[in-house]
Amino acid sequence: MQIARHNRHGRLGVDFARGEGDEIIAGTIGRFAADELRPRLREFESARTVSESVRERFAALGFETLDLAEEAGGAGLGLLARVRTNRLLAEADAGAALALDRFAPAIYVIEAFGGVEALKSRQLNLGQSDLRFALVMDPGAGDVAGARVAGQVAWIPAAGADVLVGLGPQGAWLLKQGFAFEPVGGSALHAAGASSVKFDGTPILAWHDPVRAAQALARIRVYYASLIWGVLSDAAGFSRSYALDRVAFGKPIAHHQALAFLIVDMYVAVERLGLLIEDAAVAIDAGEGRAVGAAAAAFVDAIEASRFVGPNGVQILGGHGFMRDFPVEKAMRDCRALGLLAGGCDAAREQAGAALAATISERIAA
Amino acid sequence: MNNFSAALNAYIEQVREWGQREVRRAGLEADRNGAPLPPDHPYFAAYVDFRRRHPVPADDGAVPEGPAVRMAAINEENAYWDRGMGVAAPGPGLPAPIVTAAGTPEQRERFLGPFRGTDIPRWGSFALTEPSGGSDTAAFRTRATRTDRGYLLNGAKCFIGNAARADWVLVQANLDPEKGRAGQRSFFVERGNRGMTGIKIEKKMGLRAYESVSFILEDCEVPHDNILGGERPERTSKSSAYGATMGTLNTTRVGVAASAVGLARSAYDEALNFATQSGAFKSIRVRDRLEVMYRQLRAAWLMTLRAAWKADNRIPNIVDASMAKVFAAETAQDLASAGMEIVGLEAGAGHHLVEKLFRDAKALNIVEGTGQIQRIIMARNLVGLPR
Ligand SMILES: Cc1cc2nc3c(=O)[nH]c(=O)nc-3n(C[C@H](O)[C@H](O)[C@H](O)COP(=O)(O)OP(=O)(O)OC[C@H]3O[C@@H](n4cnc5c(N)ncnc54)[C@H](O)[C@@H]3O)c2cc1C
């Protein structure tokens, strides 16, 4: 299998190297995550938000619009840069990563339908630092253009928003009014807040276009998968270092083969997930036909990896893992919860299968 | 899900009725509060009353199943309603069989007697695990030193169930470190002993319905009479040392497996109910998942029952018990996780039972011998894995 990537010289080919720009981004975000987010993990969790000062510092780094197209006022670095950033933020705290992203993945819907320009004429300026977006999946979105939309979702990891974006297989809509957030307990990702959302209103923008809807969903899936990637990378890394320190039966527990192999398998799960995510991001950035299927597959893989790595991160710490003094219990909850978003696992599996079937049919026809 | 005798089924029916009416609700309340219900909560008095009216079937032949199968059946049903409340239930708990097996007659009377026929909720507790390690029981660092007045205990214990509310905690300590495991003895530390300090109730991911307590033993003095089995155990009971404790853990392993099956069944039911009510059951993917869940659940229950049945029939069951413990615990985790996926955003919202089960289940693969330790036990027996 050949991995098509734009390499540093702008040519397509196999290239796993990271450019200088990537390293700078990674260094900056990595430091921010380690210094500002990680030490305050439980504080943000109880506060159900990140502090204003942390928000400001994040905004000052200029990463908010990293992957938005330049025409939309972004840095135009593409989804690949975003997933790498997300991974680093989520290694520290996925809830905080969501809280810091005021566009949530909702902006991908607006971008996919070419709606960024239209926002301006609706007095919605993306540069306005307190303007927040939220996304809900609405199966009926795009069915009838211009009609009222109504429904509710039991949970989204957000405390509120100024703009609500709905996405379904047929299209999308955008509400500026006519929706209400109600706080709920939430199973995880508490730093982002947790709400149920009711909506009943007339969209200020609405689109019907299944192809674009699928493209938006692909980005959203990769976005969430990359947060899962970060959470799992942390769970695997944290439990690995714990296992090197903790001694039982006369040696570090990591050196008992049963745990050594488990640690190795967890590492492999995280690595393969990372590769699938980056591959999907590259496909999306390059506008390749396989992007939708690759994104769905990456999301499914993230969920499968979560089921394995999440609970085993706790397991390696034994009883300590079950206590809130350590971050692995939070990782287990966070990755489970992230996998419920973007329409869930079964829908992604369906789409990954459909994409595969389509390529096979094409090949047979040829 | 079983073919028990009518007598056992009748008892389980009472547990079910009680569970549905009281236990589930109490467990959810504790989970929401993020803390165990206080010892004077009316639930506990009602529990004691329930147990007085419906005592666990005794070994008098009225229920034909043996004690291990009986225990498995009851644990499974209890855990279906709430595993955490099952552990929080008043009573002497895990140490009861240890004290019965290894205690002197006076100790049995003094420490277990107050639990009989009382209407006051009381707890006993068992402290084995230490902050530096729980799996490697031979490496425990808590020391006991004999003095003229009694024994001085020094060390630390962690995650000890019900320890802050217990009348006494049975503490494992080493009296003769040179003998390694063989030097270990158990000591009753009674409530209010000032040498038991730094009591901390841990904040847990799940199973919040019962206290898991960490504490320090600092020159904690107990009378000579408080050493389990007496000062010269060989005169009272051969099995008062390390063996009694480990022997008990071998039998309770099947009980933990049964609890895991109960929790798993609860997750399965939640997923199934949601799928049928929401119409998701029509999806072949959801039906496939439920089929996988049901098959795994059924296998876990059969494994558990067979391990229990072998124990009752004095057939060696060490591999069966470990297999049941690890498979059932992993089943509980898998089913709760799959259940969350089927329930979807309702589970994400944090108010659906399946989300609580997801947090509760994890501990079952850790307590009373982790999944790795169970695999080591099996491997020793199946392929002669060297120690
Ligand atoms: C909710 C809860 C309630 C509890 N209640 C009680 C109680 O009432 N009383 C009590 O005494 N204890 C209690 N415990 C403690 C429990 O028994 C221990 O947590 C357990 O025995 C594991 O010990 P540990 O946590 O120290 O993990 P460790 O022993 O440090 O093990 C860490 C990891 O290393 C693995 N490991 C260790 N040795 C090996 C090996 N040789 N090969 C491969 N892997 C290995 C383990 O499987 C685990 O994954 C409770 C724990 C919990 C979570």
UniProtKB/TrEMBL annotation, chain A:
PROSITE patterns according to UniProt: ACYL_COA_DH_2
Cited InterPro entries: Acyl-CoA_DH_CS, AcylCo_DH-like_C, AcylCo_DH/oxidase_C, AcylCoA_DH/ox_N, AcylCoA_DH/ox_N_sf, AcylCoA_DH/oxidase_NM_dom_sf
SUPFAM superfamilies recorded: Acyl-CoA dehydrogenase C-terminal domain-like, Acyl-CoA dehydrogenase NM domain-like
Keyword Transport attributed: no
Signal peptide: none
Record keywords: FAD, Flavoprotein
Superkingdom in the source lineage: Bacteria
Alphabetized GO MF terms: acyl-CoA dehydrogenase activity; flavin adenine dinucleotide binding
Domain Acyl-CoA dehydrogenase/oxidase N-terminal: 23-115
One family name in Pfam for this protein: Acyl-CoA_dh_N
Domain Acyl-CoA dehydrogenase/oxidase C-terminal stretches: 213-354
Cofactor: FAD
PANTHER family xref list: ACYL-COA DEHYDROGENASE (PTHR43884), ISOVALERYL-COA DEHYDROGENASE, MITOCHONDRIAL-RELATED (PTHR43884:SF12)
Entry similarity comment: Belongs to the acyl-CoA dehydrogenase family.
Protein name: Acyl-CoA dehydrogenase family protein
Organism: Bradyrhizobium septentrionale
Phylogenetic lineage: Bacteria, Pseudomonadati, Pseudomonadota, Alphaproteobacteria, Hyphomicrobiales
Automatic annotation (TrEMBL), chain B:
Name the record gives this protein: Acyl-CoA dehydrogenase family protein
Native organism taxonomy: Bacteria, Pseudomonadati, Pseudomonadota, Alphaproteobacteria, Hyphomicrobiales
Acyl-CoA oxidase/dehydrogenase middle domain: residues covered: 125-220
Alphabetical list of InterPro entries matching this protein: Acyl-CoA_DH_CS, Acyl-CoA_Oxase/DH_mid-dom, Acyl-CoA_Oxase/DH_mid-dom_sf, AcylCo_DH-like_C, AcylCo_DH/oxidase_C, AcylCoA_DH/ox_N_sf, AcylCoA_DH/oxidase_NM_dom_sf
UniProt keyword annotations, A-Z: FAD, Flavoprotein, Oxidoreductase
Classification via Pfam families: Acyl-CoA_dh_1, Acyl-CoA_dh_M
Top-level taxon in the UniProt lineage: Bacteria
UniProt record similarity statement: Belongs to the acyl-CoA dehydrogenase family.
UniProt cofactor(s): FAD
Record carries keyword Flavoprotein: yes
Domain Acyl-CoA dehydrogenase/oxidase C-terminal: 244-382
